[in-house]
Amino acid sequence: MAEKHWYVVHTYSGYENKVKTNLEKRVESMEMQEKIFRVLVPMEDEIEIKDGKQKKVKRKIFPGYVLVEMVMSDDSWYVVRNTPGVTGFVGSGNKPIPLTPEEVEAILGRHGEDKPAHVVVDFEVEQPVRVIAGPFKDHTGVIKEIFPEKGKARVQVTMFGRETPVEVDFSQIEEI
Fold it and tell me: Residues in domain KOW (predicted)?
Protein backbone atom coordinates (compact mmCIF):
# COMPACT_ATOMS: atom_id res chain seq x y z
CA MET A 1 0.00 0.00 0.00
CA ALA A 2 1.20 3.52 -0.78
CA GLU A 3 2.27 5.81 2.05
CA LYS A 4 -0.01 8.39 3.59
CA HIS A 5 1.15 12.00 3.59
CA TRP A 6 -0.26 15.41 4.46
CA TYR A 7 -1.29 17.55 1.49
CA VAL A 8 -2.35 21.18 1.37
CA VAL A 9 -5.65 21.91 -0.34
CA HIS A 10 -6.52 25.43 -1.49
CA THR A 11 -10.08 26.57 -0.76
CA TYR A 12 -12.16 29.67 -1.20
CA SER A 13 -11.24 31.98 1.66
CA GLY A 14 -13.71 31.69 4.51
CA TYR A 15 -14.88 28.24 3.36
CA GLU A 16 -12.20 26.22 5.21
CA ASN A 17 -14.56 24.72 7.82
CA LYS A 18 -17.27 24.05 5.22
CA VAL A 19 -14.70 22.24 3.02
CA LYS A 20 -13.58 20.19 6.05
CA THR A 21 -17.19 19.16 6.78
CA ASN A 22 -18.01 18.45 3.11
CA LEU A 23 -14.84 16.41 2.61
CA GLU A 24 -15.43 14.36 5.76
CA LYS A 25 -18.98 13.58 4.56
CA ARG A 26 -17.69 12.62 1.09
CA VAL A 27 -15.01 10.33 2.58
CA GLU A 28 -17.76 8.53 4.49
CA SER A 29 -20.32 8.34 1.68
CA MET A 30 -17.74 7.25 -0.90
CA GLU A 31 -16.07 4.84 1.55
CA MET A 32 -12.61 6.40 1.24
CA GLN A 33 -11.61 5.92 4.93
CA GLU A 34 -8.77 3.65 3.75
CA LYS A 35 -7.21 6.48 1.72
CA ILE A 36 -8.30 9.77 3.32
CA PHE A 37 -7.66 9.85 7.06
CA ARG A 38 -7.79 13.33 8.56
CA VAL A 39 -8.91 16.77 7.45
CA LEU A 40 -7.58 19.70 9.43
CA VAL A 41 -8.11 23.47 9.48
CA PRO A 42 -5.07 24.58 11.53
CA MET A 43 -6.15 27.05 14.23
CA GLU A 44 -4.43 28.79 17.11
CA ASP A 45 -5.75 30.61 20.14
CA GLU A 46 -5.37 34.33 20.03
CA ILE A 47 -6.12 36.80 22.81
CA GLU A 48 -7.46 40.07 21.47
CA ILE A 49 -7.29 43.06 23.77
CA LYS A 50 -9.65 45.80 22.73
CA ASP A 51 -10.87 48.63 24.95
CA GLY A 52 -9.09 47.01 27.89
CA LYS A 53 -11.07 43.76 27.57
CA GLN A 54 -9.46 40.41 26.81
CA LYS A 55 -11.24 38.03 24.46
CA LYS A 56 -9.97 34.57 23.47
CA VAL A 57 -10.62 33.75 19.82
CA LYS A 58 -9.59 30.93 17.48
CA ARG A 59 -7.74 32.15 14.40
CA LYS A 60 -6.97 30.22 11.25
CA ILE A 61 -3.21 29.86 10.85
CA PHE A 62 -3.47 29.51 7.05
CA PRO A 63 -6.63 31.21 5.74
CA GLY A 64 -7.71 29.66 2.44
CA TYR A 65 -6.04 26.30 3.11
CA VAL A 66 -7.02 22.93 4.56
CA LEU A 67 -4.66 20.04 5.35
CA VAL A 68 -5.58 16.52 4.32
CA GLU A 69 -3.79 13.37 5.47
CA MET A 70 -4.23 10.82 2.70
CA VAL A 71 -2.78 8.20 0.42
CA MET A 72 -2.54 9.87 -2.98
CA SER A 73 -4.24 7.91 -5.76
CA ASP A 74 -6.45 8.81 -8.71
CA ASP A 75 -9.64 8.11 -6.77
CA SER A 76 -8.58 9.87 -3.52
CA TRP A 77 -7.35 12.86 -5.56
CA TYR A 78 -10.72 12.95 -7.35
CA VAL A 79 -12.72 12.88 -4.07
CA VAL A 80 -10.74 15.77 -2.58
CA ARG A 81 -10.47 17.80 -5.79
CA ASN A 82 -14.22 17.62 -6.47
CA THR A 83 -15.31 18.60 -2.97
CA PRO A 84 -17.35 21.83 -3.09
CA GLY A 85 -15.18 24.83 -2.12
CA VAL A 86 -11.87 23.16 -3.06
CA THR A 87 -9.98 25.04 -5.78
CA GLY A 88 -7.08 22.59 -5.98
CA PHE A 89 -4.07 21.03 -4.35
CA VAL A 90 -0.90 22.97 -3.63
CA GLY A 91 1.85 21.67 -5.90
CA SER A 92 3.32 22.08 -9.34
CA GLY A 93 0.95 21.53 -12.25
CA ASN A 94 -1.36 18.59 -11.60
CA LYS A 95 1.01 16.89 -9.17
CA PRO A 96 0.24 17.65 -5.51
CA ILE A 97 3.37 17.90 -3.37
CA PRO A 98 3.13 16.42 0.15
CA LEU A 99 4.35 18.37 3.17
CA THR A 100 7.67 17.27 4.61
CA PRO A 101 7.62 15.63 8.07
CA GLU A 102 9.27 18.80 9.47
CA GLU A 103 6.53 21.02 8.00
CA VAL A 104 3.81 18.73 9.39
CA GLU A 105 5.42 18.76 12.84
CA ALA A 106 5.70 22.56 12.81
CA ILE A 107 2.07 23.00 11.74
CA LEU A 108 0.61 20.38 14.08
CA GLY A 109 2.74 21.80 16.90
CA ARG A 110 1.29 25.27 16.31
CA HIS A 111 -2.20 23.83 16.05
CA GLY A 112 -1.84 22.00 19.38
CA GLU A 113 -4.26 22.75 22.18
CA ASP A 114 -1.53 23.22 24.78
CA LYS A 115 0.15 26.09 22.94
CA PRO A 116 0.05 29.47 24.67
CA ALA A 117 -2.35 31.88 23.02
CA HIS A 118 -1.00 34.49 20.63
CA VAL A 119 -1.82 38.01 21.88
CA VAL A 120 -3.10 40.80 19.65
CA VAL A 121 -3.05 44.25 21.18
CA ASP A 122 -4.68 47.42 19.93
CA PHE A 123 -2.13 49.66 21.71
CA GLU A 124 1.01 51.15 20.17
CA VAL A 125 4.28 52.57 21.49
CA GLU A 126 4.09 56.38 21.94
CA GLN A 127 0.29 56.22 22.20
CA PRO A 128 -1.19 58.48 24.90
CA VAL A 129 -3.25 56.53 27.46
CA ARG A 130 -5.17 57.03 30.69
CA VAL A 131 -4.71 54.61 33.59
CA ILE A 132 -8.23 53.55 34.64
CA ALA A 133 -7.47 51.08 37.46
CA GLY A 134 -4.84 50.18 40.01
CA PRO A 135 -2.50 52.36 42.07
CA PHE A 136 -1.88 54.79 39.16
CA LYS A 137 -5.59 55.33 38.38
CA ASP A 138 -6.43 58.70 36.80
CA HIS A 139 -2.82 59.32 35.67
CA THR A 140 -2.20 59.88 31.98
CA GLY A 141 0.93 58.94 30.15
CA VAL A 142 2.52 57.58 27.01
CA ILE A 143 3.19 53.92 26.25
CA LYS A 144 6.95 53.35 26.06
CA GLU A 145 7.02 49.53 25.78
CA ILE A 146 4.53 46.75 25.14
CA PHE A 147 4.83 43.19 26.51
CA PRO A 148 2.06 41.24 24.72
CA GLU A 149 3.11 37.88 26.19
CA LYS A 150 2.68 39.31 29.72
CA GLY A 151 -0.41 41.38 28.90
CA LYS A 152 1.35 44.51 30.15
CA ALA A 153 2.66 47.87 28.97
CA ARG A 154 5.26 50.24 30.37
CA VAL A 155 3.69 53.68 30.57
CA GLN A 156 5.59 56.93 31.28
CA VAL A 157 3.45 58.94 33.72
CA THR A 158 4.16 62.20 35.54
CA MET A 159 4.12 61.83 39.33
CA PHE A 160 5.29 64.44 41.78
CA GLY A 161 6.61 66.51 38.87
CA ARG A 162 8.76 63.63 37.53
CA GLU A 163 8.47 61.31 34.55
CA THR A 164 8.10 57.81 36.00
CA PRO A 165 7.83 54.53 34.11
CA VAL A 166 5.12 52.21 35.50
CA GLU A 167 4.14 48.73 34.35
CA VAL A 168 0.38 48.19 34.04
CA ASP A 169 -1.93 45.50 32.67
CA PHE A 170 -3.61 46.22 29.34
CA SER A 171 -6.93 46.06 31.19
CA GLN A 172 -5.80 49.01 33.36
CA ILE A 173 -5.33 51.48 30.49
CA GLU A 174 -7.45 53.05 27.79
CA GLU A 175 -6.56 55.22 24.85
CA ILE A 176 -7.20 58.93 25.18
Answer: 122-149
With 0-12 / 13-18 / 19 or more C-beta atoms within 10 angstroms meaning exposed / middle / buried, residue 159 is exposed
Which of 172, 174, 122 minimizes the C-alpha distance to 148? 122
- Single-letter residue type at 12: Y
pLDDT of residue 36 exceeding 90: yes
Would you call 79 exposed, middle or buried from its count of C-beta atoms within 10 A (0-12, 13-18, 19+)? buried
Cα–Cα distance list, 126 to 30, 103, 112, 155, 167 (Å): 58, 38, 35, 9, 15
**7 φ, ψ (degrees, to nearest 5):** -120, 155
* pLDDT at residue 141, rounded to an integer: 95
What are the two backbone dihedrals, phi and then psi, of residue 141, each rounded to the nearest 5 degrees?
-170, -170
